[in-house]
Specification:
It is a single chain. This protein has about 900 residues and is mainly alpha-helical. It has four domains: about 220 residues, alix/aip1 like domains (Serine Threonine Protein Phosphatase 5, Tetratricopeptide repeat); about 120 residues; about 140 residues, Four Helix Bundle (Hemerythrin (Met), subunit A), CATH 1.20.120; about 300 residues, Butyryl-CoA Dehydrogenase, subunit A, domain 3, CATH 1.20.140. It is built from 24 helices and two strands. It has a two-stranded antiparallel ribbon. A hairpin with a 7-residue loop joins strand 1 and strand 2. It is elongated and about 180 Å long. This is Hydroxyproline-rich glycoprotein family protein, putative, expressed. InterPro entries: ALIX_V_dom, BRO1_dom, BRO1_sf. Keywords: Coiled coil, Cytoplasm, Endosome.
Length: about 900
């Protein structure tokens, strides 16, 4: 076989004509996208043009030139994968219609195909790539180990290129587009694939022969070589290849098939001779010799070295046959079986087509990356939807598993019962938040301080009301004194007539204060009665008020610790499964975030469905882990349920649960009662603060009224004294003086205290209801409040009437009547008693802030105490804030 070392076939490349890709592709970009995109793609277009120019150059036979040629073809093939999805090349006017590719047949160079289709270009490039691989294999020195490995690998790569043409549909698409040359048909690609595999397997045969391997192994390898050649010969003998290839090719393949079949018989006979199976040895030798004789009869034009190799093999087989027959005739005397009775020779395939998916993958190329056609975006959207469906489905499974765990553990009262046994008792989250809010606001212990604040405000309002009434009473007494002194000469209206409206308001305020005091008393009684209930809220931590599980007083077997330990271990395993689920969900999301198949879509290798199937499969391992996690959790929950039943029986959990629920209800009731009392106190504080402001305004009105009356009093005294002394005045002056005798009362439209709801931080019912009731919503339904809380009365003024019959055009009480004397604006009012402070002796409530940053001028009456910053936390109420 050494003489046949160089008797193998290489394939010549297809020839092409120069083609300019730059101009047609650029015109399409400018038309389909924009001129700016076309300008941006200039470098990529030039790169594709240069790659095509490299392919157009003929290759040289030396190994280094062949490798550069291979690399150029691979680069251009990847570029075509990026061009195909972006540039539709056809005769359609809307496509790249001015571009046609021309390629000559590799076996009949006189024939050529010129088609406006990128599929012909891709098929021709793949054909030439396979041809270059075959030339590299043929150029390798198979007498060395490196050379034989290079040859074998290159033949397999050539077979892989032809297989890619056939399996990816490139060849079929080229034929469908109008390619008329036979060399790019799927049938030719399949034949050449088998031929390259046969020669690759032949390289292995040469290696096992040179390595002195056993005859049985050599026979199997040789038989597989013959099978590949037989399949290639069958394809050459069928249409459309039967009339296309040169006869020497057909004879070569036919003779190679017979040679390696005969060689397999020869190697098998050597193995049979060692086993002394002479009869079968003789039969195998006869079959091989007959196959060689038949092949030599039809072989025409085959290479002389191949024919010499066949003749040498035939000679060796005949020599062995003569020896075997003599030994059988003299020694063994065995009957030689018929050829039909022998089984087929075993074969061992050591080669396969090398996949070119990796070297042809254009997903990492950057050519035309800014151009993304609508079809690719739709395909990407479809894939994204498939991935989203997987993520959503698996996430739902994970969430459902977590929810099942939560519900099952809650039904078994785990891990709360274990925590209670260890002293780590916890409240339900919502109840714990309610208790924390109560404790932050001061708790039950802080209610007494707020009640004291309520008492202080009530006393301040009462003092302000008394001071205002005393001011009016003092002015009325002075007026009565002068009226008695001067008799009929004292002609100005009586004070009681002018202050009737104000007195009515003050009486109403006094009534409201009395009713509010009753409500305060009811709140105090309610707090006192409820304090045993709500005092539990002062426990810190609140969990100290809860019952705990205690160990049994007597134990029969003393296995309580083992029961608890086993249950805790199972709970830890369940927690580990939950953490694993969270990690799996994060893993899926991270995989989706990194899953970008757009470059692979744009590479245009294979169909989208095949690509989607391949890419989606990478999510399968994670999905399998999720399924395993759910199954393991279900089994673990069953185990925990059995362990918990044993735990409950030992530690008497039923009594503990009853006591715990009772405590939960007590705490919830305490929170509700505390909130109710707190709400009533806040309403009371808001009532008193707003009422204090209203009384202060009335007091100021009274001060202004009394000042005006004092001025009138002095003028009338002077007038009466002049008359008694005998002075006479003109009638006009007298008339003007008499007009000034009329005093102006406070305006009936003076501001009345607003309802509490106008100052409250939120809408709420009134703090009290006057005896006559109130028609406003919420004021006439005191039964909605708790039994111990009596609403405070509103302090709104009754419907106002014009004072002492004055017409509606009468000026306000703060201004004198026309013709009356007016005090100059800069004149200070006399220092009467009605201007004294509202708090005798300088008393200030505890909410009054004694530290003022700057001394302020004192108004005629002290500012309401709530105008100063109080000492109470701002979260309790807002009544103390400046209005």
């Amino acid at each position: 076989m050494s003489s046949a070392a160089n008797v193998m076939l290489a394939i010549h490349e297809k020839r092409t004509t120069p083609t300019d890709l730059y101009r047609p592709l650029r015109l399409y970009i400018a038309s389909a996208y924009s001129e700016r995109e076309a300008a941006a793609a200039d470098d990529d277009l030039a790169a594709v043009r240069d790659l095509r120019a490299d392919v157009e150059q003929p290759s040289l036979p030396d190994p280094s030139s062949l490798e550069r040629r291979r690399d150029a073809l691979l680069a251009y093939a990847r570029a075509l994968s990026l061009v195909e999805p972006r540039f539709p090349i056809s005769s359609d006017r809307a496509h790249v219609h001015s571009l046609a590719f021309t390629w000559h047949d590799a076996f009949k160079t006189g024939k050529k195909a010129s088609v406006a289709s990128i599929h012909l270009e891709k098929a021709a490039v793949l054909f030439n790539l396979a041809a270059v691989y075959s030339q590299i294999a043929l150029a390798a020195d198979r007498a060395t180990d490196v050379g034989i490995r290079t040859a074998c690998g290159s033949f397999q790569s050539a077979a892989g290129a032809f297989a890619w043409m056939r399996e990816s549909g490139v060849a079929a698409k080229a034929v469908a587009a109008g390619a008329t040359t036979v060399d790019v048909t799927p049938e030719c690609a399949a034949m050449l694939e088998k031929l390259m595999l046969a020669q690759a397997q032949e390289c292995f045969f040469e290696k096992v022969i040179a390595g002195g391997k056993p005859p049985a192994l050599c026979s199997k390898v040789a038989r597989q070589v013959g099978i590949f050649y037989e399949e290639a010969y069958a394809a050459l003998s069928a249409a459309p290849l039967s009339q296309h290839f040169d006869k020497t090719w057909v004879s070569h393949v036919q003779l190679k098939a017979a040679q390696f079949y005969a060689d397999a018989c020869y190697r098998c006979s050597l193995d049979l001779h060692e086993k002394e199976e002479i009869a079968q040895e003789i039969a195998r030798l006869k079959i091989g010799i007959s196959a060689l004789a038949d092949a030599k009869k039809v072989a025409r034009g085959v290479a002389a070295p191949l024919l010499d190799s066949v003749n040498k093999l035939e000679s060796n087989m005949k020599t062995n046959l003569e020896r075997a027959m003599k030994e059988n005739d003299r020694v063994y005397l065995m009957r030689v079986p018929d050829a039909s009775s022998l089984g087929a020779l075993p074969a061992a395939s050591l080669v396969k087509p090398t996949s070119l998916a990796e070297v042809l993958d254009a997903s990492k190329e950057r050519l035309f990356s800014s151009l993304v056609p609508d079809g690719s975006m739709k395909a990407l959207s479809k894939y994204t939807e498939m991935v989203d469906n997987i993520i959503r489905t698996q996430a739902e499974k994970l969430q459902q598993a977590s929810e099942i765990t939560r519900v099952r553990l809650k039904e078994m009262d785990l891990p709360d019962s274990i925590l209670s046994l260890e002293g780590n008792i916890t409240l339900p989250l919502d109840l714990k938040e309610d208790v924390e809010a109560v404790q932050i606001s001061g708790g039950p212990a802080g209610l007494e301080a707020e009640l004291q604040q309520l008492r202080d405000l009530s006393r301040v309002n009462q003092e302000l009301l008394v001071q205002t009434e005393e001011m009016l009473q003092k002015e009325a007494n002075e007026d009565a004194q002068f009226r008695t002194q001067f008799g009929s000469r004292w002609t100005r209206p009586q004070s009681s007539t002018l202050t009737k409206n104000i007195q009515d308001r003050l009486n109403l305020f006094a009534s409201n204060l009395k009713t509010a005091g009753d409500s305060d008393s009811q709140i105090e009684r309610g707090l006192k009665e409820s304090y045993p209930l709500i005092s539990i809220l002062d426990r810190r931590p609140i969990e100290s008020a809860l019952p705990s599980i205690s160990r049994p007083i007597m134990s029969l077997d003393g296995n309580e610790d083992a029961i608890v330990g086993a249950l805790k271990q199972s709970l830890r395993q369940l927690e580990s499964l939950g953490a694993q689920r969270a990690g799996l969900e994060d893993m899926l999301k991270e995989m989706k975030r990194k899953d970008d198949i757009l470059p692979k879509l744009m590479a245009g290798v294979g169909s989208h469905d095949d690509l989607f199937k391949k890419e989606i499969s990478k999510y399968d391992p994670v999905c399998a882990e999720i399924a395993d996690n759910i199954v393991a959790q279900e089994q673990l929950l069953l185990q925990i349920q059995a362990q918990n039943e044993q735990f409950a029986a030992v530690f008497n959990l039923e009594d503990y649960k009853v006591a715990r629920e009772r405590c939960y209800k007590q705490i919830a009731a305490a929170v509700a009662k505390y909130r109710d009392i707190k709400k009533n106190i806040n309403e009371g504080l808001n009532f008193y603060v707003t009422l204090q402001e209203a009384i202060g305004k009335i007091k100021q009105q009274c001060s202004d009224f009394i000042m005006t009356r004092n001025i009138q009093c002095r003028e009338m005294i002077e007038d009466v004294q002049k008359k008694l002394a005998g002075f006479s005045f003109s009638s006009s002056s007298s008339q003007a003086s008499m007009q000034r005798n009329t005093s102006v009362p406070p305006d009936q439209n003076s501001p009345s205290p607003p309802p509490p709801s106008s100052h409250a931080p939120h809408a709420q019912g009134p703090y009290g209801v006057p005896p006559g009731g109130d028609s406003r919503p919420g004021y006439s339904q005191p039964e909605q409040r708790p039994a111990y809380s009596q609403p405070y009365p509103p302090y709104g003024a009754p419907p106002q009437q014009p004072p002492y019959g004055a017409p509606s055009q009468q000026p306000p009480y703060g201004a004198p009547h026309p013709g009356h004397y007016q005090q100059p604006p800069h004149q200070q009012p006399p220092n009467h008693d009605y201007g004294q402070q509202a708090y005798p002796g300088g008393w200030r409530g505890q909410y009054y802030n004694p530290h003022q940053p700057q001394p302020q001028p004192q108004p005629p009456y002290p500012q309401p105490p709530y105008n100063a910053q109080g000492s109470y936390p701002p979260h309790q109420s807002s009544y103390y804030r400046p209005q």
